């Protein structure tokens, strides 16, 4: 089955047919005609995808019943809550969805294209940039006089890169063994890459090869900003309950100390806003 790059029920509806054929072949499920089917879907799934899935299950596989459940609702129910704020850090994207009394509040769903796959690409480009050897030809500069003008603007820095890199300069390296047996040393990347989840602009600034991300970087929110925006889009009466019932899910959410970092940033943003 092809991996879905986009957050839809299935990026290619034909994959549903492949799943059903595999189920029938492996005899791991009761025949679809005798039992109902439940599909989990992203909170922002398109209506067209939902209709196509229903058409396929009812008309081709003769399913007696079909239920499309939102991922956020299933996550909330799995934790024993009917109301919560579900932060789904997946492979293809990150989604913040408020759930109230078992229903997703669609108007307050906030999504970002930054997920585990994006962070993996950032890490690969960063490692590749350090392993490529360049040869430079020495060129002679003809003697002469050159006039330069130093520009000095108050409260500005010469280059943001210098400051973003300085925070990671003293981080010790750690050895990692790859599946092929090769051992590599990773230092600042262990913290710099996950930081992109909280500050997307770091991708284009501090990671070589990610300059193309600049086109959408300004419109992409960091994880704490996504949470605050989603809560603010909800009714005032349920904001406190949502803020105290944040659930992290998804493979990317399993990174060490992500929960603590998100909690710290949210508290700082919330109190600075109230001052």
UniProtKB/TrEMBL annotation:
<dbReference type="GO" id="GO:0035267">
    <property type="term" value="C:NuA4 histone acetyltransferase complex"/>
</dbReference>
<comment type="similarity">
    <text>Belongs to the actin family.</text>
</comment>
<protein>
    <submittedName>
        <fullName>Actin-related protein ARP4</fullName>
    </submittedName>
</protein>
<dbReference type="GO" id="GO:0006338">
    <property type="term" value="P:chromatin remodeling"/>
</dbReference>
<dbReference type="GO" id="GO:0003682">
    <property type="term" value="F:chromatin binding"/>
</dbReference>
<dbReference type="GO" id="GO:0016514">
    <property type="term" value="C:SWI/SNF complex"/>
</dbReference>
<dbReference type="Pfam" id="PF00022">
    <property type="entry name" value="Actin"/>
</dbReference>
<dbReference type="GO" id="GO:0006357">
    <property type="term" value="P:regulation of transcription by RNA polymerase II"/>
</dbReference>
<dbReference type="InterPro" id="IPR004000">
    <property type="entry name" value="Actin"/>
</dbReference>
<dbReference type="InterPro" id="IPR043129">
    <property type="entry name" value="ATPase_NBD"/>
</dbReference>
């Amino acid at each position: 089955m092809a991996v879905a790059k986009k957050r839809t029920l299935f990026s290619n509806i034909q994959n549903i047919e492949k799943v059903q054929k595999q189920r029938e072949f492996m005899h791991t499920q009761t025949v679809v005609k005798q039992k109902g089917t439940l599909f989990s879907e992203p909170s922002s799934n398109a209506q067209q995808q939902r209709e196509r899935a229903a058409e396929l299950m009812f008309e081709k596989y003769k399913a007696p019943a079909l239920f499309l459940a939102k991922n956020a609702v299933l996550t909330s129910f799995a934790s024993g809550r009917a109301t919560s704020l579900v932060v789904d850090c997946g492979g293809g994207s990150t989604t913040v969805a408020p759930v109230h009394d078992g229903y997703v509040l669609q108007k307050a769903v906030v999504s970002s294209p930054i997920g585990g796959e994006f962070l993996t690409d950032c890490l690969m480009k960063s490692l590749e940039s350090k392993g490529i050897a360049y040869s430079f030809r020495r060129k002679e500069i003809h003697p002469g006089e050159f006039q330069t003008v130093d520009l000095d603007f108050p409260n500005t820095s010469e280059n943001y890169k210098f400051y973003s890199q300085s925070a990671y300069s003293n981080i010790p390296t750690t050895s990692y063994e790859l599946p092929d047996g090769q051992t590599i040393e990773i230092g600042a990347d262990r913290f710099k890459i996950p930081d992109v989840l909280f500050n997307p602009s770091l991708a284009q600034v501090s990671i070589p090869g990610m300059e193309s991300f600049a086109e959408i970087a300004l419109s992409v929110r960091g994880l704490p900003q996504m949470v605050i925006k989603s809560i603010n889009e909800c009714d005032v009466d349920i904001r406190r309950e949502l803020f105290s019932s944040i659930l992290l899910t998804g493979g990317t959410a399993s990174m060490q100390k992500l929960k603590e970092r998100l909690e710290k940033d949210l508290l700082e943003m919330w109190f600075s806003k109230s001052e």
